[in-house]
Amino acid sequence: MIKELIDKFYDAKQEKREKIAFYVSDAGKCPRAIWFSVKGYPKKEFDARMQRVFEHGNHTHMRIMGVLFSLGLINAVEIDIPRNEMMHGRADAIISINNEPYVVEVKSVNSIKFKKEYPDQDHMNQLQLYLYFFKIKKGILLYENKDTQELKEFIIDYDEPLVKKLFAGFNELKRQVEENITPQIPEGIEDWRCDYCPYLEECDKIEAQENEQAKK
């Protein structure tokens, strides 16, 4: 009854728009999934439960930003990266501590990720790109455990070799988009990426076609 009404609210709320460029948040994602998105392939929409998960993360951001504002640390929030031909992106915040600037990215994670001694590589990639675009040498990944509301932070230095590697990957993907070449699925990709990929059905079609061609 009320559950169905709430689910319909979130289903109707989803944006129906075609992606026109790469995003900082694409860093580390499967290149084939990004290719499908740029090409405008049909995708499976997130269900209402997943949208509520995303909304919970948004509320976490707002709450923590409110605290940082109260502490007088905030220089700017929700800052778009400088305009460029490669990608779009918006960092959570830039703060100052002892007159030193930091890019801050806030992530709401489950207990399994929170207990790890190192940050998620996708989050690292995103933060490194923000450091590059804003020309800031240090960043902070702030994790909140969505199960317990515990906090953990990682202080990250700018890593130029990693940024160059990320841009090389995006440039190769740009070429594949322009030449209509379907990227290969990276070796060793985690199963969960495929399980939750909104383009899994399209990907399976391509895999089936490639298997048929290999048999000929």
Give average pLDDT, whole number: 87
CATH architecture assignment: Alpha-Beta Complex
Strand order of the largest sheet: 2-4-5-6-7
Number of strands: 7
Task: State the helix count.
Answer: 8
Classification by helices and strands: alpha/beta
**Secondary structure: helix percent:** 40-55%
Q: Please indicate the percent range of residues in DSSP E strands (runs of 2 or more).
A: 15-25%
Protein described:
The protein has 216 residues and is of the alpha/beta class. It has one domain (2-215): Lambda Exonuclease, Chain A, CATH 3.90.320. It is built from 8 helices and 7 strands; from the N terminus they run αβααββββααββααα. It has helices at 2-13, 31-39, 48-70, 111-114, 121-134, 160-178, 191-195, 200-215, and strands at residues 22-23, 74-80, 87-88, 90-97, 100-109, 138-145, 151-157. The strands form 2 sheets. It has a 5-stranded mixed β-sheet with strand order 2-4-5-6-7, sandwiched between helices. α1 packs across α3 (48-70) and α5 (121-134) packs across α6 (160-178). The longest helix is centred in the first third of the chain and has 23 residues, at 48-70. The protein starts with a helix and ends with a helix.
Name the features.
8 helices, 47% helix, alpha/beta, 216 residues, Lambda Exonuclease, Chain A, globular
